[in-house]
Write a structure and sequence with these properties.
About 15% of the residues lie in helices and about 45% in strands. The chain is an alpha+beta fold and about 100 residues long. Strand 4 and strand 5 form a beta hairpin. It starts with a helix and ends in a 14-residue tail after the last helix.
Length: about 100
C-alpha cells in the first residue's frame, strides 16, 4: 500500500535546491527551493506519520508532486529546517501549519 502513496525517491535539500534521488538507480533531479509552490500535510497517515507533499512549479511543463513521510525526531530535525526554509522563501507555499502534535 505504501508504494502507491509515497514517491519512489529519497529527498535532500541545501540552501538553494531540493533534490529527488531515485531509490532504484534512477537519475537524480534538482529543483530550486524558490520554485516550490506548495508544502502541505495530507490527511493520510502511515504508522502515525502524516504524508506530506511538495509541489514544484516546472518552467512550462506543469508541476511535479513529491509525497513522503518525514523522518523528524529529537535527533533529526531536518524536515523542520526544510519547512522553515520554504516558509522564509515563499510563505504562500506553506499550506499546513507545523507543530509537534500534527507532524
Amino acid at each position: 500500500m505504501e508504494d502507491n502513496l509515497l514517491s519512489d525517491e529519497d529527498y535532500f535539500f541545501d540552501e538553494n535546491y531540493f533534490y529527488a534521488v531515485g531509490r532504484r538507480g534512477g537519475a537524480g533531479r534538482s529543483f530550486r527551493l524558490v520554485d516550490i509552490i506548495e508544502l502541505r500535510r495530507t490527511s493520510t497517515q502511515i504508522n502515525n506519520h502524516y504524508i506530506w507533499q511538495v509541489v514544484v512549479q516546472l518552467d512550462s511543463k506543469g508541476q511535479s508532486i513529491f509525497s513522503f513521510t518525514h523522518n523528524y525526531s529529537l535527533w533529526n530535525r531536518n524536515f523542520y529546517v526544510f519547512y522553515q526554509k520554504i516558509r522564509e522563501l515563499n510563505p504562500h507555499a506553506i499550506k499546513s501549519k507545523w507543530s509537534l502534535w500534527t507532524m
